[in-house]
Amino acid sequence: MYRAKPNITNSIGAKDFVTKEAAVTYLEQVTGISMLYPRKPEKLPKSAKKLLEQFNMTPEERLRRIETGELTYDWELLGKLTRVE
Predict the structure, then answer these.
(1) Helical pair 59-67 and 20-31, crossing angle rounded to 10 deg
(2) Where is pLDDT greater, at 60 or 13?
(3) Best CA proximity match to 39, nearest among 79, 62, 73, 64
(4) What total of structural domains would you count in the chain?
């Protein structure tokens, strides 16, 4: 289970979700910001077109890349997305 907390300073709007994808979708909708980035900056494509293609992937491809560690969410680094038991 994952907890999505759109506000850093308080728990207003915090919700629990079964999947990480659902929690991230909620955070993106509430804040209007997407924080999915390649884990290794050297893997960034050189052209903007390739960058857009990379983030316009199917949900299955996106999930696979997250599970393999190729992509990560900065939501986790900021403490807005946490795993709860």
Answers:
(1) 110
(2) 13
(3) 73
(4) 1
